[in-house]
Amino acid sequence: MTSSEVQKKRPTRRSRTIARVAAVQALFQCEQSEETAETVINQFLRHRQISSSASFEDGHIPDADLKLLQEIVKGTTLEQDKIDHTLSDVLPTQWPLPRLDPVLRALLRAATYEIINTNTDNRIIINEYLDVAHGFFFGDEPKLVNGILDTLNRRQEGNS
């Protein structure tokens, strides 16, 4: 196998970031449409996975790590009660989970799923979701995301 073939098979950082953006979009869609994770993932795979020349502006998810996308969406929906409980413990009292913007709620759920359930370094997860937050929000939301995920990380490290 040539090095270019290996690179095509191995997910890149960009493909993982794109998967996380798509996961947030899919989780938002699951909540808004009340469709299952499987239904939404299938829709994403049929209608949004296009060649690398397609763009987010067109509603596509070019070059996404589809395995990671599926893992995050399915895992987050299966573990949502546990995730919501965990988030409720670290959210400011004036910002309970139901009060959050639905996209922000989807982002925090996906990030929390990864922090709790994967072996990915939490600093990478936090940085990735901060980048995602900056893509969706232009106000104080990225600061809120950073604070919440940092608190989750510290608690996770304290429980290790």
Describe this structure in words.
This protein has 160 residues and is mostly helical. The chain has a single domain, classed as N-utilizing Substance Protein B Homolog, Chain A, CATH 1.10.940.10. Helix content is 70%, strand content 0%. The chain contains eight helices and no strands. The chain is globular, with a radius of gyration of 16 Å. 33% of the residues are buried.
Name of the CATH architecture: Orthogonal Bundle
Number of discrete domains: 1
Question: From the alpha-carbon coordinates, what is the Rg to the nearest angstrom?
Answer: 16 Å
- Name the CATH homologous superfamily: NusB-like
Number of helices: 8
Beta-strand segment tally: 0
Low-confidence runs of at least 5 consecutive residues: 1-9
Mass-distribution shape? globular
One letter per element, helices H and strands E, the order comes to HHHHHHHH
Main sheet attributes: strand count, strand direction, barrel closure: none
Distance between the termini: 39 Å
CATH class: Mainly Alpha
SSE-based structural type = mainly alpha
Work out the strand percent. under 5%
InterPro entries: NusB-like_sf (IPR035926), NusB_fam (IPR011605), NusB_RsmB_TIM44 (IPR006027)
Pfam families: NusB
Organism: Swingsia samuiensis
GO cellular component, one term: cytosol
